[in-house]
Amino acid sequence: MAPIWTDVRAVLPSTASEFPLQFSEKIELSVLKVLELARDQLYSEADGPASAERAQLIIDYSWEKLNTGTWRDVDKDWRRVYSYGCLFKVLSLCHGYPSQYNIQEAIKTCDMSLLMGAAIMDNILQRLVGVIRNKMKMKSPNKAHRSEEPCSKKMKLDCVSEPVINPAQAVPRIHCPSLERFRSDFLDPQKPVIIEGITDHWPAFAEHPWSIDYLRTVAGCRTVPIEVGSKYTDEEWSQKLITVNDFIDRYIIGTAEVGVGYLAQHQLFDQVPELKGDIRIPDYCCLGEGDEDDITINAWFGPGGTVSPLHQDPQQNFLAQVVGRKYIRLYSPDETKNLYPHQTQLLHNTSQVEVENADLEKFPDFSKASYQECVLQPRDVLFIPQQHWHYVRSLELSFSVSFWWS
Amino acid sequence: MNWFGFGFDGFGQIRPADVSGQVLCKVNTPVLISDVCRSNCRVRVRASWSSRADVHHADCCSGVCVSGFASGSSEEVGRGILPQSQGCTDALISERYLTLNFTDRVECWEIQYPQHKLVWKREQDNTGHAAALPLVSGGYIMPKPPFFRPLCSKLCALSLALGSEHAVLLTSDGTVYSWGSGSHGQLGHGALTSQEEPQVLEALWGVPIRAVSAGNWHSASVSAGGDLYMWGWNESGQLGLPSRGLEEEKRRGKSSGNTEQPVNEDGKKEADVFISIQAFPALVDVPNVFEISRISCGSRHTAAVSGTGDLYTWGWGHYGQLGHGTENSRDEPTLVDYFPSHRMCVKDVICGLWNTFVSAVPKEQPPS
């Protein structure tokens, strides 16, 4: 078996001249010099290592730029510089005979560039993570065989309240509607509906049924952003970056002391292409105006008890349930005046009301607001019209996939 | 007066490159800066990420010499006073520009090779003006075009500190103003909103302040009584408040130094309350210190000189910029042992982005 360095080095261009370092003048000459020294070192010797120090320098300096100003304002070239720093760091970690720890660090570094950087050299870091991951899988076969269920202690805490759906307020269900039927009865009038029978062909239900085991195999060593805290409106709410394995160990299977953790609103399928192959974009998205490339696909993976507070999104949404069940309540945009949205710019799309524990003294009109509700089951797809208020609570271990389209 | 430096040295701005041209990146204990002019002239050190500028102010030599990236390749002859800086009264160096202040004008030179290029100039009457750069008559100089920004003259500006995206101003009556981005609490007004115009720091109203400093996302001020107030981002402990990130760093065993948990006098561990963003000024306690005389902020670290001549540092330390001999970050003000060990009395401190420069005199000398 070839050492990992051989495979990694093979992904790099063969000459320094094919390794471009082109940036706008926003990138200062001093850091450009460090980038050039790092690249030149790679090609100066036949099997040259990359300097870990130089790589970290580039990462640290560009990290400060990435945290300056709003994310939207960050110059794309600084994100590219950050990716180059990650690339050099990955190369230094994989050189020689790297330890398991170094290989995991290399994967994490690839992930950091995918999360925070911008694509460079034909998305080389996405290709590299594939190469390195294969090496990791071969070295640790045990993890794949361990069969795991969320521990019983955790499950007892999860099943706090099993909601009873009032039939008069239930979201209607429909089985495989035609495109025309969906458009005329639900999309045009902007009415929520649960569509059944359109995901049975997904590999996530057929060839590779999604489970904790499967997720560990496909993405266990990958670093993802996790939300910690019961909901994003809490003061204690924070985000951290940990591997999927650690997330499962600590927040799915682990004890309750660490609090609630939620892999929420993350474009996991861009990061882990293998998972993207397990899902399909619902056909009804073609009724929208945008391209398929403009559809945002997010993963939502967490234990029972995760809560998304009542909020609205600017696009149409298909929420596909793959594993577990979720309680969902929907309010039409007409009810907005009864839902007490936050007054701040940051949270104006979020209600101040705790839907399942409403303070009616503080928010008296909330009881006037009419709503629909459902328990979303595996294989269901819920259509949430644009700007429709929605509240979501997982009833058990859950994995959902959302498709935001226009 | 000797200058010492520690921290990031990737461009030889602390120790000039040795013969082989290889420069070690980090200096984690203070070293004497060998190439600072040692004549009787007073020298003020200024630093950016990659460079250092020494501002000489004496009869023998009046001007700026630069080291690090700004001084060009190591083949260049000498590190003497830059010709264009002859007679300047003050200078600031940023990654792209060298700003030179003269009595009759202020100039910005773009740092490039083979020669720096004058890109901007403004005539002024600076003769009566006592304040240091970036303040000039009528306003201040930013390290990027359009360079000059006016300041309302009613403000009576005394000292101005520029962070990466905010500004902290001290006026002659001891009032602090701030403006710019507030996303990390660095304005100190209690919210995370940004301000376009100078806004009074209400929380410090009534406390006469005599010094201000700004890092990339944090701010510091010292009161007339020598108390230190800080606000902004505490992600590496740069505010001297408990930082969650450092907690996790210790747990991961990254510390190569002391791994004991700090305990308070009762012998109990400190409460698990971590501060990520401090949006209002917080009083920072520096152990065994009654008054702070100088304060300076790097991008994510802070350095303070006590009234009795000791240097304390805290915050991000991965490049040795805290000077404790390690690459650990600290969320508590910690004495830089080098100076008392060598019987030196610290006079002043200036931080570059990732390094720290200290002027000190032997303790035997009477303080000048």
Automatic annotation (TrEMBL), chain A:
Catalyzed reactions per annotation: N(6),N(6)-dimethyl-L-lysyl(36)-[histone H3] + 2 2-oxoglutarate + 2 O2 = L-lysyl(36)-[histone H3] + 2 formaldehyde + 2 succinate + 2 CO2
MF term (GO), any: metal ion binding
Compartments it resides in: Nucleus
InterPro entries: ARM_KDM8_N, Cupin_8, JmjC_dom
EC top class named in words: oxidoreductase
One GO term of the biological process aspect: regulation of gene expression
Enzyme Commission number(s): 1.14.11.27
Superkingdom of source: Eukaryota
Keywords for the protein's UniProt record, in alphabetical order: Biological rhythms, Cell cycle, Chromatin regulator, Dioxygenase, Iron, Metal-binding, Nucleus, Oxidoreductase, Transcription, Transcription regulation
Cofactor(s), by name: Fe(2+)
GO CC terms of this entry: nucleus
Domain JmjC: 270-406
Function (record text): Histone demethylase required for G2/M phase cell cycle progression. Specifically demethylates dimethylated 'Lys-36' (H3K36me2) of histone H3, an epigenetic repressive mark, thereby acting as a transcription activator. May play a role in the regulation of the circadian clock.
Name by which UniProt lists this protein: Lysine-specific demethylase 8
Source species of the chain: Carassius auratus
Encoding gene per record: kdm8
UniProtKB/TrEMBL annotation, chain B:
Name under which the protein is recorded: RCC1 domain-containing protein 1
Region named Disordered: 242-267
SUPFAM superfamilies recorded: RCC1/BLIP-II
UniProt-listed InterPro entries: RCC1/BLIP-II, RCC1_domain-containing, Reg_chr_condens
Source organism of this protein record: Carassius auratus (Goldfish)
Placement of RCC repeats on the sequence: 174-225, 226-308, 309-362
